[in-house]
Design brief:
There is one protein chain. Helices cover about 15% and strands about 30% of the residues. The protein is an alpha/beta fold. Strands 3-4-6-5 form a four-stranded mixed beta sheet. A two-stranded antiparallel sheet has the order 1-2. The protein has a two-stranded antiparallel ribbon with strand order 7-8.
Length: about 110
């Protein structure tokens, strides 16, 4: 938590964080520690196709999240990176789901 130039209390959030569970380089615990030391109040772990749970890691609160990336390099069909935050459950999506199905299931 910090105070901005207008005197308002603000939280420092990281809402799109990858770990070595997908294409990041740090474990969830290591990533949380880095963010905590940088003064963050909360992060969302949004690894590709892996739903994270809300918990406390290395003294930092995390909220549930996941990134559903589809399309790869096929720009004719579209490339999508859909970030879901605050998931109550794993929506059970398959990698061949279309963007609207992903949004509807989230």
């Amino acid at each position: 938590m910090y105070t901005d130039l207008l005197g308002k209390k603000r939280m420092k959030l990281g809402l799109h964080t990858h770990t070595n569970l997908s294409d990041g380089q740090k474990s969830p615990e290591q990533a949380a520690e880095i963010y905590r030391k940088a003064g963050y109040d909360l992060i969302a772990l949004t690894d590709h196709w892996i739903v994270s749970e809300e918990k406390v890691l290395s003294g930092l609160r995390t909220i549930s999240g996941c990134e559903y990336n589809i399309g790869g390099n096929d720009t004719k069909k579209g490339v999508f990176h859909i970030v879901a935050l605050g998931l109550q459950r794993d929506p059970g999506l398959s990698h061949d789901a279309d963007p609207q199905t992903i949004i509807d299931q989230i």
